[in-house]
Amino acid sequence: MSGKDAATVVLDGVSRWFGDTVALSDVSVDLGPGVTGLLGHNGAGKSTALALLAGALRPSQGRVRVLGLDPHADRRVHRGLGVVADGEGTWGHASARTQVEFLARQRGVRDPRGATDEALRRVGLTEAADRKVAGFSKGMRQRVKLAQALVHDPQVLLLDEPLNGLDPAQRRTDVELLVALGAEGRTVLVSSHVLAEVERMAERVLVVVNGRLVAEGEPAAIRDLLVDRPRTVRLEGVRVAELAGALLSAGLVDAVQRHDGAVVVEAPRAVSLAEAIPALAAQNGTTLRRVEPVGEDLESTFAHLVRAARGVGR
C-alpha cells in the first residue's frame, strides 16, 4: 500500500450519513498509481465513496483528499480528476465529438480538438465520433463518458461501474484500456459488483459491505476470502446419506444432518467440497438432483468478511 505522503487519493476516517441512514462508516484508505477495484453489492456504499472523492458530497466526518486537495472545497482538483458517474450523463441530440470537446474546453485544455480526437481514439469511437449519441448503444454511451473523463489527461480517474452495458468484446477492450491507464502512472479507482470483472483489471481490491470497508488486498486473496469460506450446503437426491458419510470420512465436512429427505452438511472450505462431490458421488452411487447453499445472505457474508478482513492485506 502507498503511504499517505505518496498517495493521490486519501479517505481518512470518513463517514457519510443521510438522516438516519449510514451510507459510509469510518473508512480509511490511501491509494496511489495503478488500478484499484472497489467491490461491493448494490447499495454497499461504492457510489457514495466515489461521490465524496469527486467532490459532489461533503463527508459527515473524516477527511477526503485527492491530489492533496479537498475535492469539495477546492475546484483546482478537477484539473487532475476524471469522473465517470453512474447513470446516463450524455446528450442524445449531440455527437460524441461535440460532447467530449465541450468538456475539453470547460477544462481549459490547450488543444481541445486534438485532445478530443485522442480521447475518442482511445475509447474506440473514432468512426462514430460525428454521429448523434441518441443512436448509440448503452455501451457506446459509456465510452463517450469515458472519453469525457480522459480528455483533459487527468492523473486520477474515478469510474462508477464503467463496464455496464458493454458486450463481451467491448468489456475486454475497455479492461485493457483501464489496465493501460493504470500502467501510465494514473490512479484509477473502478467500482463494480462483479469480482471476476474487477480481478481482470485491478492490482488491489477494496471490499465494501453495508458502508464499511471490510477487506482489502490482491485479487487472488480477495477471491479466496469471498469464495473459499465455510459453507452450509443442502444435498438432495438418491443415496445422499452415503455421499454425506464419505464427505465426513474424508474430513471435507464437519457435521451432517438429515432434513426432509435431504442431507445438510457443514463444510470448512467450500471449494474443496465442490471439487470432491462429483467423484465421491460416483463412487457411492449417488444421483444428485440439487446442491444448494444454505443461509447465503448478505449478513452471513458480512459477518465472515469482518472476521477474516484483518488477515488479508490489512
UniProtKB/TrEMBL annotation:
It comes from the Bacteria. Coiled coil: none annotated. GO terms for molecular function: ATP binding. PANTHER family: ABC TRANSPORTER RELATED (PTHR43335:SF11), ABC TRANSPORTER, ATP-BINDING PROTEIN (PTHR43335). Keywords: ATP-binding, Nucleotide-binding, Transport. Signal peptide: none annotated. This is ABC transporter ATP-binding protein.
